[in-house]
Amino acid sequence: MAEKACKKMSLLKLAEERALMKKKLDEQKQKQQLDSVPYLPKDCVSNILIRLPIESLQRSRFVCKPWYSIIKSPTFIRDNLHRAEKVMIFLAPVKPLIRRRYDHLEFVENPNTFSVESKVFELKSVHMLLQPLIESPFKYVIKYMVFEDGKIAIGDYNATCLGKIRASCDGLIVVDNKLEKGELVIMNPVTREVNLLPLGTIYPPHDESFGLVRCGSGGYKLVHLFRDEFHYIGCEVLDIGEKSWRVIDGPSFGLVKWFGYSPVFAIGALHWVPEVDHSEYIVTMTIDDEKFHKIMLPKASRFNDRIMEAYECLCFVTHEDINEISIWVMGSVSDTWTKKYTIAIGCIRDLVPLYFSRFKYEIYFMDKDGSVFGFDFEGAHMKKFTTMKGCFMLPGAEYMVHVNSLVSWQIKENDHE
């Protein structure tokens, strides 16, 4: 017995020595590999990563700790935001897989799909067994549309929600939480960061408007304009991260008659078109002092005209007659309108402006049948965008200008470094 025990101990010692030898050899091999890789300064790595598509950046975070540190840094996130092109974000009905289970059919969702409502339950500490079952036919998938090189492409965040998108800014969106009346959710659909916002004033959905803006301090504000029971227009502001809304003085009585279009954030202010047709002015709220102003338009706005942000200016895109579209520009709130460009549209009718490209001198339009056109200012020509199957403007869908980014609304101490 003693001899067997001694032999067993010898074998165990031999195995330990071999394991230790293998570990040393692996460490030496890893060191040799690292030594053979040329050193790249951190700034150089950051300069390479900043050129990756947003989807690749999300995956690249987990390559190594230095990359994670670079991509999560406030400087990198800000630089990435400044390089981001505009897209059109929208909601589309979920098209779940349907499988037969025994004698009935059931809906099956992609297991990797991110649900805003499930995250809300998690934030509220609702146990999984107590969460109500939300069937797929009542959900919407959050998507975005890209116009590039004369083609339309559809991107998918692989995320679902029940409520409509209320506002967008710097890659952040505000969405209705349909499980709780009047409650809102702020999220970044790229990073899937989600948080609940405190309950504000509740009014019928057609008598209110939301605008999300970035402040000079780097934080974000959500502005809520609404019509009360006495037909006065009230206004409240939420500093994102605070626990309650602040009531401020709204626009003068009678200035705002309609809430159909989302407000436009430009030249340090939010701007509303106050009437559905023949509006002679816009209503503006400057963000710093939270005061409302009335700005006259160069001509009355018609149904297919729009105010838009372009190249750090406020633009008014208006149909002069059936063959021309004019673009008026204002550089600051106290400035006057200047007519900068006239587009001859020829036989194309009923064009609705969508947005200006951030980095190309182009403006995009939608026709009444959902077709998309782009006007190139440098080449002075209009082109129709080609579509793939399923890539078209959905009738009845609400589209909002957006950018894909890694931005968070949370202000951290190292944000100012």
Description:
The protein has 417 residues and is α+β, with helices and mostly antiparallel strands. 18% of the residues lie in helices and 39% in strands. It contains 6 helices and 28 strands. It has helices at residues 2-36, 42-49, 54-60, 65-71, 74-83, 116-123, and strands spanning 86-93, 97-101, 104-108, 114-115, 140-148, 151-161, 165-169, 172-176, 184-188, 193-197, 208-214, 220-227, 233-239, 246-248, 264-266, 269-272, 279-286, 291-301, 306-310, 313-321, 324-330, 338-344, 352-356, 362-366, 372-376, 381-384, 386-387, 400-403. Strands 1, 4, 5, 6, 27 and 28 form a 6-stranded mixed sheet that branches. Strands 7-8-9-10 form a 4-stranded antiparallel sheet, with helices on one face. It has a 4-stranded antiparallel sheet with strand order 11-12-13-14, with no helix packed on it. The longest helix is centred in the first third of the chain and has 35 residues, at 2-36. The radius of gyration is 27 Å and the shape is globular. The protein starts with a helix and ends in a 14-residue tail after the last strand. 28% of the residues are buried. The model has no long low-confidence stretch (mean pLDDT 83).
